[in-house]
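Repro:
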Amino acid sequence: MRVERANESDIPALVALNNRYAPQGLTLPRSETFAYGHLADYRVLRDADGAVIGCVALDEYSPSIVELISLAVTPEAQGLGHGKQLIAAAERLARARGYQEIFAVSFSDELFLSCGFEHAALSHFPEKIARYASVDASEIQVGEKHCFTRRLG
């Protein structure tokens, strides 16, 4: 298994994998246009045959803050540590780009805490709240999802 930068031919697989979990509220729906516009921000996990079995991306909020988004692993590849691999890849990319803080909004408390993230109040990220409001105001009602953060600098 290897994590690498996504390429244009991965876009349909990225969107399909991400959107597989959108109906349950585990991910936000993504379009091919979104994936294309953020292609340099995506990292993919490939199986031995080169197929995409996991993905993660970064979404910048400011020159110092970035969100980890679109974390998804195929059902048959879950429970094998691939989520941790993808989070580590996203962190490496965020550090290389000079971000001071990375955050995520997720149901996966145990996963993010085991990767060194800490719970944070969503109110710590007013930019995220504003973006939720502009995309879908119902997303502000995070419910059981929690906000996690990790200082990188």
